């Protein structure tokens, strides 16, 4: 793959962008919490990175296939860079507010929707359909390694120069990623983009995808637990900075603040590496039921302990369980869905699942603001318990389908 100059530049751009996003993932909630001391606004900033996908996802995907993908990608990266650069500028002028930061969070979330929609179609055009698995594997490996390493680096950066100026690193990352993308000489489309008028069949196609999901007991159950899993994840990850400071006593100016995000990233990598190594005879349902059963147990530890080592260990295990649940569901949909429905079914299922994240974030933020972070995480634990109970009484428990 790396002998291909176009892929090298695409890979470099994505890796730089993921590294910048990892810095923002740590710095943004710290910034909002430092300014406002409001768990709700902190959770709103986290939800802002997901909400735009629910609003613009289907539309952005349709538009990105009808216009020049390179233009969409470069415009999205340019707007995101300008939005992020406004934060250190406002800090230097003494006019930065929490709502400004929340607005920037939603802006870069919106830019990601358009970037993702265009990049999804650009990769096959750049590398050819037969090399898509190798290309995706390289991109995924890079992203997971960055997700493990950069939260700790971001913690040091935030402690050294402050969260507002740390966000300038992400703005620079978008600029560098945009330059790498602009340097790709190959076309981002297999065929010339031809703008079309809106087609009435889009609504019908969405209904067909929903119908397929609903009519399959296994996929319906996986989509349901996916929503609850996302609900729980949204509640947990949106308040990591509040949990670190109020629950574990870690200062936002301490480099240790990044260790909490690193634990979540490490757990995700472990879950992703573990899933393909599970015995082939284990059914999809059994794996998901097992992961969902462990999740509320370790989240209860997270919610009730003040010991940093115990909390980080429990967060790592929880993140691994959540990742296994997500990837197991994606794999099952890809194997069981007819080729002509793959795009619609997987996009629909992802949007349903992602819908839980901002809801969980906002609920937990409101509860932490009214009571405390421990109560908010106990509510997240109850979400996970509901997901486990649902899994036990659903088609997942009797599913005979091997997970590979």
From TrEMBL:
Compartments where found: Cell membrane
Family annotation (InterPro entries): MFS_trans_sf (IPR036259), TM_effector (IPR010290)
Transmembrane segments: 12-32, 44-64, 71-93, 99-127, 139-165, 171-188, 221-244, 256-275, 282-303, 309-330, 351-371, 377-396
Keyword Transferase in annotation: no
Main location: membrane
Bilayer disposition of the protein: Multi-pass membrane protein
CDD domains: MFS_MefA_like (cd06173)
Keywords, alphabetical: Cell membrane, Membrane, Transmembrane, Transmembrane helix, Transport
Domain of life, source organism: Bacteria
Pfam family, one: MFS_3
One cellular component term from this protein's GO annotations in UniProt: plasma membrane
PANTHER family assigned: INTEGRAL MEMBRANE EFFLUX PROTEIN-RELATED (PTHR23513), MAJOR FACILITATOR SUPERFAMILY ASSOCIATED DOMAIN-CONTAINING PROTEIN (PTHR23513:SF6)
The name this protein goes by in its record: Hypothetical membrane protein
């Amino acid at each position: 793959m790396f002998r291909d100059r176009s892929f090298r530049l695409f890979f470099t751009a994505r890796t730089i962008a993921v590294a910048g996003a990892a810095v923002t993932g740590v710095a943004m909630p710290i910034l909002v919490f430092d300014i406002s001391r409001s768990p709700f606004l902190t959770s709103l900033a986290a939800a802002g990175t997901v909400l735009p996908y629910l609003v613009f996802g289907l539309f952005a995907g349709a538009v990105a296939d009808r216009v020049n993908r390179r233009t969409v990608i470069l415009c999205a990266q340019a707007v995101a860079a300008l939005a992020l650069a406004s934060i250190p500028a406002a800090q230097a002028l003494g006019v930065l507010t929490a709502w400004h930061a929340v607005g920037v969070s939603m802006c870069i979330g919106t830019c990601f929707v358009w970037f993702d929609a265009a990049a999804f179609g650009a990769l096959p055009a750049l590398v050819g359909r037969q090399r898509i698995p190798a290309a995706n594997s390289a991109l995924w490996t890079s992203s997971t390694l960055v997700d493990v390493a950069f939260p700790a680096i971001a913690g040091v950066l935030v402690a050294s120069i402050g969260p507002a100026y740390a966000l300038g690193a992400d703005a620079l990352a978008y600029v560098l990623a945009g330059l790498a993308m602009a340097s790709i000489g190959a076309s981002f489309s297999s065929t010339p983009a031809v703008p079309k008028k809106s087609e009435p069949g889009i609504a019908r196609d969405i209904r067909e995808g929903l119908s397929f999901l609903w009519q399959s007991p296994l996929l319906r159950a996986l989509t349901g637990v996916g929503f609850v899993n996302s609900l729980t994840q949204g509640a947990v990850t949106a308040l990591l900075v509040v949990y670190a400071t109020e629950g574990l006593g870690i200062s936002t100016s301490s480099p240790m603040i990044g260790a909490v995000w690193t634990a979540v990233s490490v757990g995700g990598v472990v879950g992703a590496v573990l899933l393909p190594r599970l015995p082939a005879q284990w059914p999809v349902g059994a794996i998901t039921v097992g992961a969902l059963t462990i999740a509320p147990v370790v989240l209860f530890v997270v919610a009730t302990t003040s010991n940093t080592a115990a909390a980080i260990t429990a967060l790592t295990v929880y993140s691994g369980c959540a990742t296994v649940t997500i990837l197991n569901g994606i794999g099952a949909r890809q194997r069981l869905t007819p080729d002509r429905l793959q795009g619609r079914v997987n996009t629909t299922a992802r949007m349903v699942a992602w819908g839980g994240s901002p809801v969980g974030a906002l609920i937990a933020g409101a509860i932490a603001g009214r009571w405390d972070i421990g109560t908010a995480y106990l509510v997240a634990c109850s979400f996970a318990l509901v997901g486990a109970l649902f899994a036990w009484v659903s088609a997942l428990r009797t599913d005979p389908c091997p997970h590979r």
